[in-house]
Amino acid sequence: MWRLMFGKIDPVQCAKVTAGCVWPVERNGRRESRATDWFSYHETWADAHAAMLAKAEQDMYDARRKFERAQGEYDRIKGIKAPLGHSGGGLT
């Protein structure tokens, strides 16, 4: 099996593998889920690489959307004008 964790792909020997769990030898045969928020196990290096690439693409998409929202909010705020008769000073 291949473990994808923290942006790295490492080979991992497993005593047992099912569709949802693995039993890595290095963990003394303790069961782990095949996929969590922190790591995932894959049958091949290519599968692990594809998962890593898909996550990077999603991260870029999310960052672009966040930037676009922030830019829109900046432009909206920049375009706000003071009410007529007010120069932006204190209340009169």
Attribute tags:
92 residues; 24% strand; alpha+beta; 3-stranded antiparallel sheet; 37% helix; 6 strands
Short description:
The protein is α+β, with helices and mostly antiparallel strands and 92 residues long. The chain is built from one helix and six strands.
What do you see in this structure?
This protein has about 90 residues and is α+β, with helices and mostly antiparallel strands. The chain has one domain. The protein contains one helix and six strands. A three-stranded antiparallel sheet has the order 2-1-6, with helices on one face. Strands 3-4-5 form a three-stranded antiparallel sheet, with no helix packed on it. A hairpin with a 7-residue loop joins strand 4 and strand 5. It is rod-shaped. The model has no long low-confidence stretch (mean pLDDT about 95).
